[in-house]
Amino acid sequence: MFLPVGVSGLLEALETAGFAAYAVGGCVRDSLLGRVPQDWDIATSARPEEVLARFPHAIPTGIAHGTVTVVWEGEPFEVTTFRAESAYTDHRHPDQVRFVPDLEADLARRDFTVNAMACRRDGQVIDRFGGREDLKNGIIRCVGDPGERFREDALRILRALRFAACYGFRLEEKTSAAVLESRELLCYVAAERIWAEFSRLLCGIDAGRVLREFPQVIFAILPELFPMEGFLQYNPHHDRDVWEHTCAAVEASSPELAVRLAMLLHDCGKPGCFTLDGEGTGHFYGHAQKSLELAGTVLRRLRVPRLLGERVLLLIHLHDRPVFPEERWVKRQLGRWGEEVFFQWLAVKEADTLAQALAFQPPRLANLREVEAAAQAVLREGQCFSLKQLAVTGCDLLQLGIPQGPQVGALLEQLVQAVIDGQVENQKETLLAYVAFLSTSTGEEPGKGGNPWPNM
């Protein structure tokens, strides 16, 4: 296995000082998979005080657990003493850490075989638990007894699912059974840690499959979603129950966190809004609002960053609204929501459509393609749909004699709408003349009209 020069140099420095040292964990796993590791962790026989003595400018970032951060050739490396751990009373952190002299004991405490490999300075991989074979076969397997590993650290339950989702791997049979049996232990894990793992899981290439295979684990952290499983929709547009539709929608969506979260939560209010008409057709009137309420509860409990949470709620709010491939409508929505939200909205609608009954997909997908093409044409041609493209500014209006105040902004918005409606060209002289025309034709100061935003 190839080691970067900086990693090799740090290992050599430790070895020269008389200590054993190896690259360990995720960096070895990712290197063997042909991926570029995000960081390189070092395990060594040197105790923390010996590492600090060898590297005077090192930082004792986790000294109680044997971790020192060494800056080598301008790059930070976490250097941790070989250790063993015992008793996890809180199901998250070891009650006692004991430094040990050999690598094998250190590898034995790790979570999964694919993370329990080490690499020497010469590139030779040390694999005592079959991690390399599991990588080859796409298997996530616990080191030792799976139940014990999850009782030690309940977050490993989500880590197992995250690795499966992100790498497209499968859980080994005993590991899979232990994940299900141990899921209630997740209540001991802080919301921030759950969010850190779950957000990465949700953006994995196989997130839909993992959600489908381990719903009980997902419901342990998101109980609001439990009623969706097996809830039949009795509607010709849907050939899946609500949970299966949700999994398919996540699967069909782009791996963008806001979009994936919106797809996960967009229909969570459906079970609470179900009605059956006289012909036996199911309806979910008001489900978008109910989904918003439940989604808000979920996002707050998971400590989702505020701006991301607001974006997710907006996409849920928009997901059921129709879209039209008409230029003026497209420009109004681009102006109202912005480019990013607009295209995320289309992505949400596309994923929702792809998770519906096949017979209804073609016309809806064709409509979305037309809307997207219209939006791309607006952007490509530099057409005006917001104040950013408008050929006049507030300063221009003030110079024209418009009194300073809220009406300046209102007038600018009015001008944008006039440009969108084709009433006036987006040219400075023409727009200023239009402002003068508004003043003389209405007898009122321009900008004192009603809300310039039309209803959607």
Automatic annotation (TrEMBL):
Record's keyword terms, sorted = Magnesium, Metal-binding, Nucleotide-binding, Nucleotidyltransferase, RNA-binding, Transferase, tRNA processing
Domain CCA-adding enzyme C-terminal, residue spans: 295-435
Q: Which terms in the Gene Ontology molecular function aspect does this entry carry?
A: CCA tRNA nucleotidyltransferase activity; metal ion binding; nucleotide binding; tRNA binding
A Pfam family matched by this chain, by name? Answer: PolyA_pol_RNAbd
Give start and end of each Poly A polymerase head domain.
21-141
Q: Which domain of life is it from?
A: Bacteria
Biological processes, Gene Ontology terms = tRNA processing
Q: Which cofactor does it need?
A: Mg(2+)
Report the EC number(s), separated by commas if there are several. Answer: 2.7.7.72
Enumerate the Gene3D superfamilies for this protein: 1.10.246.80, Beta Polymerase, domain 2 (3.30.460.10), cca-adding enzyme, domain 2 (1.10.3090.10)
- Give the protein family: Belongs to the tRNA nucleotidyltransferase/poly(A) polymerase family.
- Protein name per UniProt: CCA-adding enzyme
